[in-house]
Amino acid sequence: MKGPFRLGLTGSIGMGKSTTARLFAEEGIPVWDADATVHALYAKGGAAVAPLSAIFPDAIRDGAVDRDRLKTLLQADKQALFRLESVVHPLVQAARQAFLLAHETADLILLDIPLLYETGADRDCDAVLVVTAAPDVQRARVLARGQMTETQLEMILARQLPDAEKRRRADHVIETLTLEQTRAEVRKLIATLRSRHA
Ligand SMILES: CC(C)(COP(=O)(O)OP(=O)(O)OC[C@H]1O[C@@H](n2cnc3c(N)ncnc32)[C@H](O)[C@@H]1O)[C@@H](O)C(=O)NCCC(=O)NCCS
Ligand SMILES: Nc1ncnc2c1ncn2[C@@H]1O[C@H](COP(=O)(O)OP(=O)(O)OP(=O)(O)O)[C@@H](O)[C@H]1O
C-alpha cells in the first residue's frame, strides 16, 4: 500500500502554523500537531512528567510539567533547552509514528512540526509547506499573546533555523496575511497535491 502523501508544515514562532493547520483540518485533512503532543506529554499522567521530574524537579507541579516554571528555568540556563529536548523529542517522535500508523489509508496528511528542519523530520515528509510573515508582524504576534518575554522569544528564535533559510528549503510557501487569503491558498495547495498524487 502506498500510504498517504505526507505534507510537513513548519514556520518560525508566530508565523501561523497552528492557524494554517486548523484550515487543513477544516478541509478534512488529518493533522498531527507536535506542540499539542508536547502538551499531552506534560499533562498529569503524560509520559514526559517522570523523566523531566528527574532533571527539572522544580518544574513539576501537581503531577504535571508547569510551563511557566519550565520557562523560568530555561531562561536561567542556556543548556537547559537542549537537555529538555533530549527527553521530549524521542517521545514526540514515537507519537508521530503512532499517528502515521493510524492514518495509513488517508490520501493526504499534515504534520505540523515547529522544529521540522532542525530535527531532520523533513526526511519523513513528501513535501514541506513553510508559513511566513514579516519579522515585525511575527514579533508583534508572539508578544501580543503575552505568554513570552522578549528574552524568551530571543532564546526560541536563536534555536530556530532562520525564516529565510526555511523558505529557501520549502517546497511551498504561504505568507499568512489574512485568514481568508491563507484559506484560499490552503485549498489551492490541497487541490494541487491531490491532482499530482492521485
Ligand atoms: C519552551 C516551552 C516551555 C514554551 O512553552 P509555551 O507554552 O510558552 O509555548 P509553546 O509550547 O506553545 O511553543 C511556542 C513555539 O515556540 C517554539 N518552540 C518550542 N519549543 C522549541 C524549541 N525546543 N526550540 C525552538 N523553538 C521552540 C515553536 O515555534 C512553538 O510553536 C515549550 O515549547 C517546550 O517545552 N518546548 C520543548 C519541547 C519542544 O522542543 N517542542 C517543540 C516541538 S517538538
Ligand atoms: N493567516 C493569518 N492571517 C492573519 N493572522 C494570522 C494568520 N495566521 C496566524 N495569524 C495570527 O498570528 C498569531 C500566531 O498564529 P499561530 O498561533 O497560528 O502561529 P504558530 O506559528 O502556530 O505559533 P507558535 O510557533 O508560537 O506555535 C495568531 O494569534 C493570529 O493572530
From TrEMBL:
Give the AAA+ ATPase domain ranges.
3-180
Q: Does the keyword Cytoplasm apply?
A: yes
Q: Which SUPFAM superfamilies match?
A: P-loop containing nucleoside triphosphate hydrolases
The molecular function terms of the Gene Ontology recorded here are: ATP binding; dephospho-CoA kinase activity
Q: Main location per UniProt?
A: cytoplasm
Q: Which reaction does it catalyse?
A: 3'-dephospho-CoA + ATP = ADP + CoA + H(+)
Q: Which residues bind ATP?
A: G14, M15, G16, K17, S18, T19
One protein family per Pfam? CoaE
Listed InterPro entries? AAA+_ATPase, Depp_CoAkinase, P-loop_NTPase
Q: In which pathway does it act?
A: Cofactor biosynthesis; coenzyme A biosynthesis; CoA from (R)-pantothenate: step 5/5
Q: What are the UniProt keywords, alphabetically?
A: ATP-binding, Coenzyme A biosynthesis, Cytoplasm, Kinase, Nucleotide-binding, Transferase
Q: Which family is it part of?
A: Belongs to the CoaE family.
What is this protein identified as?
Dephospho-CoA kinase
